[in-house]
Amino acid sequence: MDSGVVIVFKEESYKIIGACMKVHRTLGPGFLEAVYEEALEKEFQNQKIPFKKQVKLELYYDKQYN
CA-CA distance, 48 to 42, in Å (whole number)? Predict the structure, then answer.
C-alpha cells in the first residue's frame, strides 16, 4: 500500500532511528533525558553518524524571539 509519504534521506533516517532503538534496548526505560542523550552521542560516534550536540535554535514564541 502506497501512503504517498516520501522519506527524505531515507538511508540516514533508518541509521538514526536504528541507533535510537539500540540505545533504548540497551538502557531500557526510566532514565532522565540526559542519560539517553549521552548514550546516543556514543552510539552516533560508534556508527560514524555525524551530529551536533545541543544546537541553539532560533525560536519565535508568543510574539517574541529568543
Answer: 10
CA dist., res. 56 & res. 38, Å (int): 18
Q: What average pLDDT score do residues 11-30 get? A: 97
Tens digit of each residue's pLDDT (9 = 90 or more) over 35-64: 999 999 999 999 999 999 999 989 899 988
Per-residue DSSP letters for 12-56? HHHHHHHHHHHHHHHH-S---HHHHHHHHHHHHHHTT----SS--
What value, to the nearest 5°, has the Cα angle with vertex 19 and ends 5 and 49?
90
